């Protein structure tokens, strides 16, 4: 599929497909029949119950597959959108590409939903799962690491020995299958490949390459499951994997499509990281000493390159953690222009010198040919960042332990129009097939009828749009409370007030609380106060993002107060606002500290607002408010995940009631009942600790939905 991806074969293999070569003309009727009582879905999901919205979406997907074109579907939580697109896609007999934003959904589709539906439909489906190549063992780089004199630490050498032993028996090379291997191990970059250092067909281990085998699996599959990062990485560099696979696919589905734009802009521009340069210097030294010792002064070349990269970082100086610096002129904001230009020139020179040294030994081993290409490519990127940015692009500098120089388009509209929709139509016509079908779906895609928050930056203004409401009974299952008398969001005491409110409420319900913050500063402040408040308490455990790995935090939070363990408060920000599924009683209270407006000082945000202003539009009304509406909707979506869930949403931002735009943001939330005052809030908290009595709720726990 892609030089950055590998595939795992599905277990529903068949030498021949049992379907017709074209989507059947009655596909809409087939899809409709699958969702009736006693139909396909009833066989695939034991607790299936018909939902009009799920059927409506499935019929729309079927219609798009038959006629081609683009369909955008916002399907509220609980609709079961996954089955809505999978059923007609599988019934169509077309080759399908599924792309998701998260590994969790990717694994769920491949390991659970696809096999279950294929069995229910009675169709032989050959499936492939594509992961990033960094997840898979590279036999050639493992051999290089084995002879790396720099690996002197005994613990590292023991880990390497375990990997070598495991490598003898693995079929897929998926490092996730190796027990006891820490995903943060410093060994992983040494035993996996990247697009930059892969030797391709020149590799001495090419015949047994896991990536190469995976590409063959993907090309033979009927359904290929990838992720947005892999899709846009290939779209940007036009590598052979995508060039071979995409023309043969007539149905493309993007689930979790709300992340498409932000993912796409990362890959459709230009990037350079000092960490990449340091990796190159390490590989240069290792290969030189192992394969051509004495022919070139490898220590000098690698050392000069490493020093130039570190000097570039030193020019920037100390910055706040995660700082993103504007870069509208020749140097990033606050960085001396002359020193910056000099450091860039020195880095370019060091890379050119490295390329020159590599050129003298390029015929000795394919490693040197690839390193020579890497040196030249890095030098070209350094030179490009020494020139003004391309018209219509925004440039900035991410400053952390390493630097990341970024230049990106403001959105993916042009790429979608030219590289997807237009090119896809041309490929379909050349292949003699019908128009390609593009399906874009998510639970949250905007706050207006045309879903313009999503369709505009993604170049989908002409797409068919469908909005399917959630089947949940929100007025019965959930309530919204807007506490009064809180400090204004920017006042110093705001986080303290949020922490006190969350502590009181969580204590009444025995934990079961998620506090979502809009900034890392608020995350630390609220997290520290809550941990201090419940330190030594047996009833409540406070979990704070960053103190444990994300997966471990979510697993502990889902456990709730079961098996004699204390209930939990989880304080989190950023990625926890979406994609976190905690059904049942483990989560019954969501507290949001502030309205999630985009950070006004962010260079990309500023550039987007400036473009709107130049068009005579309002950056606040047309960008900031829609962004906040979608993010608020995503955060609120953590609360109710099943028909049996009950809970309370608390938004600690007075602007939601005091400002005119508050009505628009409230309208974007699910239709929960409103609590008038603190007394009603306390009564609602008490009700959560009682047996469920609301209509449609059952004390037996969550129902397994047909996704």
Poorly predicted residue ranges: 1-6, 11-21, 693-707
| Class computed from helices, strands and strand pairing | alpha/beta
For the biggest sheet, the summary is: 8 strands, mixed
Strand content: 5-15%
- Main sheet strand line-up: 1-4-5-3-6-11-2-12
Strand tally, please? 19
Helicity level: 40-55%
Please tell me what the overall shape is.
globular
Give the number of helices.
27
Distance between the termini: 27 Å
How would you describe what is shown here?
By secondary structure, the chain is an alpha/beta fold. 45% of the residues lie in helices and 14% in strands. The protein is built from 27 helices and 19 strands. Helix 14 (298-316) runs antiparallel to helix 15. The longest helix has 23 residues, at 337-359.
Question: Quick summary of this structure?
Answer:
By secondary structure, the chain is of the alpha/beta class. The protein contains 27 helices and 19 strands.
How is the topology of this model organized?
Blueprint lengths: L4 E5 L17 H8 L5 H5 L7 H16 L1 E7 L5 H12 L3 E5 L2 H19 L5 E6 L6 H8 L7 H14 L20 H4 L18 H11 L2 E5 H10 L2 H6 L5 E4 L5 H8 L2 E4 H18 L6 H19 L6 E4 L10 H23 L6 H20 L7 E7 L3 E7 L3 H18 L6 E6 L9 H4 L8 E5 L5 H4 E4 L12 H16 L3 E4 L3 H14 L6 E5 L5 H10 L7 E6 L16 E4 L10 H12 L4 H18 L10 E5 L3 H4 L3 H7 L4 E3 L2 H11 L19
Parallel strand pairs: 2-11, 2-12, 3-5, 3-6, 4-5, 6-11, 13-18, 13-19, 14-16, 14-17, 15-16, 17-18
Antiparallel strand pairs: 1-4, 7-10, 8-9, 9-10
Helix pairs in contact: 1-3, 1-4, 3-4, 4-5, 10-12, 13-14, 13-16, 14-15, 15-16, 20-21, 23-24, 24-26
